[in-house]
Amino acid sequence: MLLRFVSRMLLCLLVLTGCSATDNDPSTGGGLAAVQESKLPAEARQTLELIDRGGPFPYAKDGSVFGNFERLLPAHQRGYYHEYTVPTPGSRDRGARRIVTGQGGE
């Protein structure tokens, strides 16, 4: 539980647009920024709660394998990363905001 809390506070691997509270962290690969959970939009924090509970998720593709084709994250075997939708206010579809989780707790 403490590990989950600490890793959340220190590093949320996101594919989110519009987050300004970032710190560069070379461990995330490719220059992707680390974002403290408290600095995330409310929709992202709600998505993190759903991930903790194991769902139910509002979108059928939530939990699907994130391919990391752009190599934004450190290289791992296929299936290591999974993506979850962060709802975009006003969007009629999933939008582009995602939280990407890794099997290592990041």
What topology does this entry show?
Blueprint lengths: L1 H9 L3 E2 L7 E2 L8 E2 L7 H12 L10 E2 L15 E5 L12 E5 L4
Antiparallel strand pairs: 1-6, 2-3, 4-5, 5-6
Written description of the protein model:
With 106 residues, the protein is α+β, with helices and mostly antiparallel strands. The chain has a single domain, classed as Microbial ribonucleases (Nuclear Transport Factor 2, Chain: A, Roll). The chain is 20% helix and 17% strand. It is built from 2 helices and 6 strands. The protein has helices at 2-10, 42-53, and strands at 14-15, 23-24, 33-34, 64-65, 81-85, 98-102. The chain has a 4-stranded antiparallel sheet with strand order 1-6-5-4, covered by helices on one side. Strands 2-3 form a two-stranded antiparallel sheet. The protein starts with a helix and ends with a strand.
